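TA notes. Do not distribute before section.
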Amino acid sequence: MFSLSAFISYVVVSCITPGPNNIMSMSNAAKYGYRKSVKFCFGVATGFLLILLCSILCNMFLYHYIPRIEQIMTVFGSIYILWLAWAVYRDKPKEEKKRKIDLDTTAFSTAIVLQFVNPKGLLYGLTVISNFVFPYYQSAGVLAAVLAFNWVVVAISCNCWALFGSVFRNFFDRYRKILNAVMALLLVYCALSLYL
């Protein structure tokens, strides 16, 4: 049975937690100011939308030609979500590595391209569609609503990280264990809800 609360929890927790997109948004805002980082944030959301579209097409193919794949994808999806919960719980601050490639990190196109090499985003796209949406809904309207909702959440998340980068950094450093535990428990709930 579809659980809207589990779906929303998974989307929000996955999008708001520290990851390459959010850290880069925060870093861009700290270096170049919020205004210059906005196009990167919207590029991230647009790239994410493309990842989700690819995931929808992949799932359509798999569900159409291999109907039993749903059970397998549910198992792997829940395992991935539990692993993500563990990773969030154990998360520790990492120092930024110096980049060897000189590229415009604030560019809209850079943000889109980065989504296709972002493992968190790729796994998220496959997980959210194959576990929370496709087993229950496959209509164009619902899929469009899911895409729009994800675009908005990702855009808001990146913009929040950019706008409040230094505040979030201090807040996460101060309350990291508590916040990570809460987010990890929400992800465990998401994984368990796949079987309810």
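Switch to the second chain here.
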Amino acid sequence: MQEILRFHPVYQQRVWGGRAIETTFNRQLPAGEVIGESWEIVDRPEAQSVVTSGPHAGKTLGALVKTHAAELLGPQWPAERPFPMLVKWLDCRERLSLQVHPPEAQARELGGEVKTENWYIADTAPGAELTVGLKKGVTREAFERAIIEQRVDDCVHTFRVAEGDSILVHSGQVHAIGPGNLILEIQQNSDSTYRVYDWGRVGLDGRPRELHVHESLKCIQWDDFEPEPVRAAPTSEVIADCDAFRIRRVVLGPGDKLHFRAREQPRILSVVSGKLRIGTAELVRGDNAILPYSGEFSGEAEEFGIVLVTDNFAGAA
């Protein structure tokens, strides 16, 4: 595979969503729908990315993994194993539920999937916040009591964020996204989420959304206190590094170049601002693409911008 892979987005209605993906990225969303998520790169039974152009146009990501696993992900990748990452845009007009993803032991017990994710703040309203982890000293007993008394805010770590900030959210960390955030979420290929608290909200059907308090309490890391985000900076740096993936924020000026050698590893490119040309393809703000293992790629920035490069995922167990 010598060409980058771009895909049609898969839009998802969410009670907390809006229309910012349309206005920010100059896209056309389904009329009359509240869109909270745009699944940009996905290989799951319930959703498949479809290639937009080139020799593989019209094929799903899942089909490409099955037929071109070695070219796409490397010679050691089993053809039956799905693509390991899921990339989403999140348009959070309202506060999301307080939730947790299961760590490995709990995932086996509960029949779920491990999920570590990174949030990159692409745009935000003044005073917007994220919630990740517990306040110092909070115990399971105190947290359970706070759920009953509807004062969970007293127990969780909430902080303000600005454009360019990011934070790695590990499996087992209780978390929620506050209103006013447009976020690029780069995560393991998983969709296991347990809601522990939903602020008294109802869903799109007018009924309270399902909670998973029992499962959540089993999964929360009770010694996880007040993690800090990576704040926006004018220089390139690694903003997330874990067993499942690594993300580098690359700051580019007009004419700056990127080069990726063939047969090193596959990568995901995410343009959060600016424009980047790779061969004949132009990637603009909001675009996400896969650079296959077998290809060699050179890019040049057409204007100032920031690109996230995700790698080290093809060997993730």
